[in-house]
Amino acid sequence: MAMAAPGPAEPGRPAESERPAESGRFAEAGGPSWPGASNALGSEPSAYLRQHANNPVFWRPFGDEAFAFAEERDVPVFLSIGYAACHWCHVMARESFEDQVTADYLNAHFVPVKVDREERPDVDSVYMAATQAISGEGGWPMSVFLTPDGLAFHAGTYFPPIPLPGRPSFRNVLEAVHEAWVERRDAVEQNARGLAANMADAQLAGTVRLDEPPEMLDASLLPEAVALLARSEDPDAGGFGSAPKFPPSAVLEFLIRHAAVPSDTARAARDMAARALAGMARSALCDQLDGGFARYSVTADWSVPHFEKMLYDNAQLLRVYAHWVRLGGNEVFPVAEAASVASRCADWLLGSLKLPSGALASSLDADTVVNGVHHEGATYLWTPESLVDALDPRDAETVATMMRVGTHGTVSELGSLLHPGRALTDAESRLWERARPVLLASRTLRSQPARDDKVVAGWNGLAVGALAEAGAILGRADLVAAAEAMAEYLAEVHWDSASQVLVRVSHDSEARGIGGLLEDYAFCADGLLALYAVTGNRRWYGFAEELVLAACSRFVENGRLADSEGEPSQIFNAQGQKAALDPFDNATPSGAAGFAGALLSYAAYSGSHEHRLMAGSILGLLPPLATRAPRVAGWLLAIAQAAVAGPVEAAVVGPDSPLLRELHRALLKSPSPGLVVAAKTYDAASPAGEAEVPLLLHRSAAADGSPLVYLCRDMVCDSPLSGVAAVQSRLEEMASGD
What we know:
Blueprint: H1 24-27, H2 47-51, E1 60-61, H3 64-73, E2 77-82, H4 87-97, H5 100-109, E3 111-116, H6 121-135, E4 142-146, E5 152-156, H7 170-183, H8 185-202, H9 221-231, H10 249-259, H11 266-281, E6 296-297, E7 305-306, E8 309-310, H12 311-327, H13 335-353, E9 363-364, E10 367-370, E11 373-376, H14 384-390, H15 393-402, H16 426-443, E12 451-452, E13 455-456, H17 457-474, H18 477-494, E14 495-496, E15 501-507, E16 510-515, H19 518-535, H20 538-554, E17 556-557, E18 560-561, H21 569-574, H22 591-606, H23 609-618, H24 622-628, H25 634-645, E19 648-654, H26 658-668, E20 676-681, E21 708-713, E22 716-717, H27 724-735
Parallel strand pairs: 1-3, 2-3, 19-20
Antiparallel strand pairs: 2-4, 4-5, 6-7, 8-9, 9-12, 10-11, 13-15, 14-15, 15-16, 17-18, 19-21, 21-22
Helix pairs in contact: 9-11, 9-24, 10-11, 10-12, 10-25, 12-13, 12-17, 14-15, 17-18, 17-19, 18-19, 19-20, 19-22, 22-23, 22-25
């Protein structure tokens, strides 16, 4: 499935007086006549579903009841998928779902179903694939028409209230679909079955066999992928492709890992990563005041973002910027600037998304409601006059020039975003350090975007790993402590140890809804292993191990890997009654790629050859992707880079001392791809005994009690080392293949 595109460029909303008269059928539709009809979203915990609880549309949540009702009434299901922070979802709601005449027609001829794509990515994924197959586009809001057994037969994204060039009105679509359902039912159902059969042919779940030895990974795929990525790079603004442009987080992780290993393409990988990281950090995509990154840019130069801020984007970008610091940066994007960006991104995560429970909320809305009206990005926009209101006039004038704020708003009539689009001079940096806190304080007095407080397990898992590693690299213990609080929340609220089930979503510290998908188990396990590496707390290794083993049990059937366990019948029908496995990265890494990474790290810690082979089997998805579409296979490429490098296993043991802590920090700051680190301290006067983590078994300190570092591959170790310089030198040699 190709990456979902965003909604269309805003066409503007016509005044009521400019709208064409309703067609006769629409005007005469009237209200529903069946008993008990009403909007059923009022008791739903999802913020997105509650946004639609007062619509005159009689929405139902996705489930057997809604489809049984459609079967009983002999009408199609109208499936609308979106999320709370989505600007275009708000637009279509205002234009169509809040309109009584439109609602009456929809209620009379369809069973309307609302889905929060963040709570139900299983639903979103299959119907996104169908939407792209039917319409050639994808994005949110997604509008899909289904048979009562869940087969898609017509679909699109945003539909306006009046026809526009190349895009029919929503009311035209409803009438046409209703007419086809009544007049040409056989053709509709035949087309729906044909689409489902085609989707079945595209499923890859049967191609990943975890019960068979994998083929040897061809390491030449990695430099080939770098060369192919270079062809689609935007060398001026950084990143890949043209507008709309998304932060290529998974691809950047691959490039950073590739740059850490000497090769003919290492320099090219480093340079591409630098240009993208610098371009995003200095642009409007990155909030120059509070550090959070927006979802994507509608322009190729990152100058006009789509304003929602998502946990998953910022967690991935925090980790990538921290890893760039660990790599050492370059002249295009120096370490000091990258460290500042990473630190501010972490501060934004904890300042804007942290809940009292310690977990992180999902997102901030794209829109700000001002006087009852939704304005996209209104909180973040400035004019020369508003800068003067907040700053000394001379500083305000300089800041306006430096941050591209002119008399005409670059985003809307409300103003422009603060962004330099380049590196600041030393004098500009000093001015900005004075002005930034003043402007941020002024901005906090404005209306703020709404926050979606649901907690998604997998996204918090991404944040656990990012905060733990950033804390170690940046020397910030507060970030590591925040990661531990999130891990604690996941263990107490989302994980049922008795049934070995991870629940995907929680609200108000109560787990609700579906069990976690493969991506939830994978991202949480990966984050917990990163947290274990930083803290040495065996509890986090144990929790990660439980998740890995549970995922192997739940998502592998007859040796085949799938994204979910036991899909609802409607989803199973829509994908041709075959289990699904999507190998492509989207807003987050694919579940398969995430699981391969967790398996690879777990195998390095545990010495499990079985799980190492399973990771290799998943990497078998890579060859056609690496040579045709590396931009949507970034995380698989990153895991492959770690597998080719070993990954290296490091154990540091000895009594707690400044030297042991220094050795531990040196390991955590090594850019060796996929390096796993285990640390064990003990009282030098006591027998070392056996450590609980297999990588630490039978490791002991030096005869004089000083700490030692064991560097290994596949549990075969070099002679132990006792000094930081020796450890760093040996890691560099191992990265070179020695």
